[in-house]
Amino acid sequence: MEKWSLMTITVLLTLTVRWTVSLSSYSGAGKPPMYGDYEAQRHWQEVTYNLPIRQWYFNTSDNNLLYWGLDYPPLTAYHSFLCAYIAKLINPDWIALHASRGYESQPHKLFMRTTVFVADLLIYIPAVILYCCSLKETSTKKQVSSALCILLYPGLILIDHGHFQYNSVSLGFALWGVLWLSYDWDLLGSVAFCLALNYKQMELYHSLPFFCYLLGKCFKKGLKGKGLVLLTKIAGTVVVSFAVCWLPFCTDVEQMMQVLRRLFPIDRGLFEDKVANIWCSLSVLIKIKNVVSPQTQLKLSFAVTFLSLLPTCIKLTVQPSLRGFKLALVSCALSFFLFSFQVHEKSILLVSVPVCLFLNEIPFMATWFLLVSTFSMLPLLLKDGLMLAYTVTMLAFLLACVASFSIFEKTSVEDLQLKPFSLFLKRYVSWFKSFPRIVRSLFLLSVTLMGVLSLMSATVRPPQRLPDLFPVSVSSISCLHFLFFLAYFNIIILWDSKNSRSQKKVS
């Protein structure tokens, strides 16, 4: 009873933080002619309510795809239609065809903010609470602390309730998938992930861990017996889930192809804006977009992404475990973010939510990563006028993690889960003994650097000949951090079996 009372207080507190952030500005506020993501979501409501389904993804006189054309999967479109239906009951002007373009008002802002708030409350927050309650060999205090810190993660709050998007829906479905797989409810987990993928195509970042984990389980059970039955059930569940989501578009091949073209627009280029991945960072030195053709860019990014994913996916398929699955979600999503084609700065959220699952297990590294991931989106947040919200939520999250997990005391090789790697490295490197001290110093240096750059980005005018000095600095420094974290999580994954063997020997 005490646990649920504390969880209720935690939810109310984090809901208050979300609503407070929602009082801030949003993407493209008062900036015609294109405005921003807020207008994109409103426009999708306008299109889905007023036009027949067959026109939602096509360029017509009533649906100019150059003006925030729908480019997310069917579940997003259905969600937009549902919101539009409610909007029509309150004020038809909000979704009037053509006439509502660029519509802004306080009542409409309240309505739009409420739709995000409700989606978060119904899908993402319950998944977080139930996940934290399912943590084994963990005290009630740690479960509540984990829920508080996950729900206070500033990146998701600032993007969904500040900038304005519905990332909590797809991420919430993915989290439900993780939760159900942890209970061995493989079919429900498959349905949940299919819903996530059919809400946002960026959930492909998580697709390989789900696929490899479930395939590995089938192999483990034996493909001539129970494993084959499970594989058939999972395959059937996935096909039915996709068929239901895509049913209105399955009547015509051209309809399906047009939706796919909208979901995967290759012509947009390797990256957009100042994203903290390897291609944008390298472009500071080599203008990749000018030197390499778009087709070669696509092939290069695919090859590098595939090679970076391969070790983790092979390990997970051969040795499927729930812990390995969660680590693979982090590693694979981070590989996609760093190396894949057409990456947005907000895609780092697809890495951050799986990292949140390790706040109880590896609090120091998880906290560090989550701070960097939010910092990497600073240029976007500044553009939206969210500097105050960014500062307050970052500090609140850091304080919550320090108070809940005493992160500075969790830097030994055992706490960082690097014991087997340290035993391997001791033969070659003598300074690894002082690694805890080094990593604490790096953390403090990192936080100081992020603080200084955040302050300078908000207050100092860059030199005239270097107008992008601060955004480029933020993305490059964040990229270096992410490469470090990719190496770290891959080391844990690849040395994990040695750890289990050494534990057996000790036993």
Structure description:
This protein has 507 residues and is mostly helical. The protein has helices spanning 2-22, 37-50, 74-90, 106-133, 140-151, 154-164, 167-182, 186-197, 207-221, 226-246, 253-263, 278-282, 288-291, 294-318, 322-339, 349-356, 363-375, 378-383, 387-405, 419-425, 435-459, 469-494, 496-506. Helix 9 (207-221) packs parallel to helix 14 and helix 17 (363-375) runs antiparallel to helix 22 (469-494). The longest helix is centred in the N-terminal third of the chain and has 28 residues, at 106-133. The model is unreliable at 498-507 (pLDDT under 50).
Q: How would you briefly describe this protein structure?
A:
The protein is built from 23 helices and no strands.
Q: Report the β-strand fraction as a percent range.
A: under 5%
Number of helices: 23
Q: Return the average pLDDT rounded to an integer.
A: 92
Structural class category: mainly alpha
| Termini separation | 37 Å
Give the topology string: H per helix, E per strand.
HHHHHHHHHHHHHHHHHHHHHHH
Overall helicity? 55-70%
Parts with pLDDT < 50 across at least 5 consecutive residues? 498-507
Computed Rg: 23 Å
User: How many β strands by DSSP?
Assistant: 0
Task: Map the helices and strands.
Blueprint lengths: L1 H21 L14 H14 L23 H17 L15 H28 L6 H12 L2 H11 L2 H16 L3 H12 L9 H15 L4 H21 L6 H11 L14 H5 L5 H4 L2 H25 L3 H18 L9 H8 L6 H13 L2 H6 L3 H19 L13 H7 L9 H25 L9 H26 L1 H11 L1
Helix pairs in contact: 1-4, 1-5, 1-6, 2-3, 4-5, 4-7, 5-19, 7-8, 8-10, 9-10, 9-14, 9-15, 14-15, 15-16, 15-22, 16-17, 17-19, 17-21, 17-22, 21-22
